[in-house]
Amino acid sequence: QVQLVESGGGLVQAGGSLRLSCAASGRTLTFNRFGMGWFRQGPGKEREFVAGINWSGGNTYYADSVNARFTISRDNDKNTAYLQMNSLKPEDTAVYYCAADSDYSPNAPRAARGMDYWGKGTQVTVSS
Which of 32, 47, 52, 93 qualifies as a cystine partner to 41, CB 3.0-4.6 A? Predict the structure, then answer.
């Protein structure tokens, strides 16, 4: 089993920055073979894809709404994925979830379907 724990959420003013972390652990963890993704669910909205990164970090993919503002990265030595969020907007307010895809794929995850493990989320609130 694999556990994912998000951290780094909080309250920030519009235009500010936050860095989310996703720490992975577990007896069956092979983090350096997992694709990782970040997703979010805002108030009254469905969960949506935010960003994905493949096992090596060499391939990334972003939702249009966050492209050029958010950066996904990973440190395989620390079993941790990150989401650097800059120029935050009130519409970025959501619970942010990280997820892991155990397929050893060269492509970054792009959708919730196919993700095998999920964290419980961390709240990000952007005030105007």
Answer: 47
Residue 91: what are its φ and ψ, rounded to 5°? -70, -5
Question: Does residue 30 register a pLDDT over 80?
Answer: yes
Helix, strand, or coil (residue 32) = helix
- Positive or negative CA dihedral for 58, 47, 14, 125? negative
Closest by CA to 20, choosing from 58, 68, 93, 72, is: 72
Exposure string (b/e) for 61-82, b if CB count within 10 Å is 16 or more? bbbeebeeebbbebeeeebbbb
Per residue in 15-27, pLDDT tens? 999 999 999 999 8
Contacts of 79 (CB under 8 A, 6+ apart): 23, 24, 25, 29, 31
